[in-house]
Write a structure and sequence with these properties.
Length: 292
C-alpha cells in the first residue's frame, strides 16, 4: 500500500480529495477521489452521462455534461471489484453510481484480451482463444469490440458477476475495453511511442512503432522497478531502442511518485498523456486522459 499512497499523492489536497476506509463483511474499500459534489444537483438524464472505468482493484466514475462537453464530477475507489462485498460498499458510498438512469459507458481494464481478425470472429472461437492464452477460467463473461479501421475484433473478458452487476444496475449500458479506445484514438507517428495507464498496482502497456501496435499488455506492479523492467523487456523483444521511445503516462499517478521516477530513470522521453479536457484546475488532465 505504500506505493499506492505515493501514487495517489494528491489525496492530501483537501477538501477536494477525501481518503476514507470502509469495512463491511470483511471488505476494505478506500475512496481516493471525490471531486465536485456540488455538481450532483438534479439534471435531465439527456444532459449527462456516466463513464465508469473498471480494473481488478480500482473503479472510477466520471460524470460528463453533454452541454458543457466536459466532466463535472468524479469519484475513484480502491477495492477488489470482483468481490460482491466490495462492490456493495462502493455502491453504498458512491453518489455518482446512484444515477442509474443515465446513459452509461463502462471501460473495462481487466487483463484478458485477444485480437482476432474480424473475418475469423465468432463467439465460440473467441472463448476458445481466450482459454488457450489464459487457461480455462470459470465464471468469465466474453465479448468483443469491432475495430473496423483495423479489420479486427478485440475479444475481452471480465468476471461474469461484475458484468451482470452493471447490466442489472444501469438502464442504458455500453461496455468496451480500454485497449480498444486507445487503438481508436491513437494518432499516426513514425517514432516508437507507448501508453502507460496506471490503475493502482495494475498497469496497461501499449507500444507502437510506425503507427503499428506491437503489443498491449497488462502487468502487475509490486514495486516501481517492476514496471521499468517490463518496459525494457518489451523494447528488447521488439528491437526498439529505449532512448528513442516516448512514453505517455495516464491514470492516477503523480509525477513525483516512485512509479514515475522509476520509468524516467531508464527512459529519457516520459511525459503525461495529452488531454483536451479538464476536470478542475487542481486535477491533472492526464488522470483521465485515456478516457477522452
Amino acid at each position: 500500500m505504500k506505493m499506492l499512497r505515493n501514487a495517489f499523492g494528491c489525496a492530501c489536497h483537501a477538501p477536494l480529495f477525501h481518503v476514507l476506509i470502509f469495512t463491511r463483511f470483511a471488505a476494505v474499500v478506500s475512496k481516493s477521489l471525490d471531486i465536485h459534489p456540488e455538481s450532483l444537483l438534479p439534471a435531465p438524464p439527456a444532459g449527462r452521462r456516466l463513464l465508469v472505468e473498471l480494473a481488478p482493484s480500482t473503479l472510477s466514475v466520471v460524470l460528463w455534461d453533454n452541454q458543457l462537453q466536459s466532466p463535472v464530477a468524479a469519484e475513484s475507489f480502491n477495492g477488489q471489484i470482483g468481490k460482491a462485498e466490495d462492490r456493495q460498499v462502493i455502491m453504498d458510498q458512491s453518489r455518482l453510481l446512484a444515477f442509474n438512469d443515465l446513459q452509461t459507458l463502462v471501460i473495462s481494464a481487466f487483463p484478458n484480451i485477444v485480437p482476432i481478425p474480424s473475418y475469423l470472429y465468432n463467439p465460440a472461437s473467441a472463448i476458445q482463444q481466450q482459454q488457450l492464452l489464459y487457461g480455462e477460467q470459470d465464471r468469465l463473461y466474453t465479448d468483443g469490440d469491432l475495430l473496423q479501421d483495423h479489420d479486427m475484433l478485440l475479444s475481452w473478458q471480465m468476471p461474469a458477476t461484475v458484468h451482470q452487476f452493471f447490466v442489472n444496475r444501469f438502464k442504458v449500458l455500453q461496455i468496451r475495453h480500454l485497449v480498444s479506445g486507445l487503438i481508436k484514438s491513437h494518432t499516426s507517428n513514425t517514432s516508437a511511442n507507448g501508453n502507460i495507464v496506471v490503475y493502482g498496482s495494475r498497469v496497461w502497456i501499449l507500444l507502437w512503432q510506425d503507427s503499428q501496435l506491437l503489443i498491449a499488455k497488462s502487468v502487475e506492479v509490486g514495486h516501481p522497478d517492476d514496471l521499468s523492467y517490463n518496459l525494457l523487456n518489451i523494447c528488447r523483444q521488439f528491437s526498439v531502442e529505449p532512448v528513442q521511445t516516448q512514453w505517455h503516462i495516464s491514470g492516477m499517478v503523480e509525477q513525483d511518485s516512485p512509479l514515475w521516477a522509476a520509468v524516467s530513470r531508464f527512459f529519457a522521453q516520459v511525459s503525461e498523456m495529452p488531454s483536451n479536457v479538464s476536470l478542475h484546475k487542481d486535477i491533472p488532465g492526464y488522470y483521465f486522459a485515456h478516457l477522452f
